[in-house]
Amino acid sequence: MPSSHNVTRRSFLGAVASGVALSQLALDAAQGPAPAAPAANVEADVVYGKGGDTDLHLDIYKPTGSATRRMAIVHFHGGGFTGGNKNGLAARLQTMSGRGYMNIAAQYRLAANGAARWPAQIEDVKAAIRWTRANASRLGIEPARIAVAGYSAGGHLALVAAGTANRPEFEGKGGNAGVPTDVAACLAYYAVTGSSWEGFRRQFPMPEGSSEDAWRAATPGTYIKSFPPTILFHGLADVTVPAESSMDFLKELRGANIPSELHTFAGVPHEFVGIPEFAESTSQLADFFIERHVINPRTYPPFGAGRGRGGEAGRGGEGRGGRQ
User: What is the mean pLDDT of residues 20-31?
Assistant: First the structure.
């Protein structure tokens, strides 16, 4: 039904693609969570490894688009390291599956009531990556085209995984030993990156009495020079994990010359990808980023100097991009 608060899909996506900050108007237009993927497109509760003595499960969301990217994205839910589950990602994964990606929602051990302490969580993340690569033929993907994505606390896990490929101290014994854990890209949504979130030291499942070296080893920025192309998303009205968490991390990525982007959204709180408009728009941005840096890598020449009076080309320009 028409409303003064409605935003058309075309104008909404146009605003995002042009880098325009989104207002509370777009948030008001949301009509609740998007529907979960159709059952026919999901293979649920596949055992991918062991977390201690516990079977770990994942859900496989198969591509529903007309073209397949032959690429998998392994997703890790949020929940402050103590809650949440893979089922909460259903709506989000449907939008990415519609763009031709194989999407995997993976379980990891939680720290509720002190159950699983670090590094159990990252060991489970690495096991999920190994399973995905070991099953590349079954999934119909290229083994070199595996990315990780994470949300809030899961964003922290995705970032740590992205920077610590094949490091023995994080690999664990969850299954498929010896399979590489490097990833082609990382997608982090309102991620916990360390000190920018005041609750990091209170909620992170670090064993009691751990040293400062242990804390540094659990901080994504410690491994910044080893990162693959990374894209960050954050709402500017997030009061759970402040946007500075991603802003500061982007500076670190840029300082290390890692291909990276940050997309922020005005008036938007934590966990916004459950809103249909944002599930779709962030999927579009993530797809464009992955396409440019993984699937069809390319660079762009710098802009040439502006033309002077009378239409003469500026120095180095000559109408050819003005390479420097």
Answer: 33
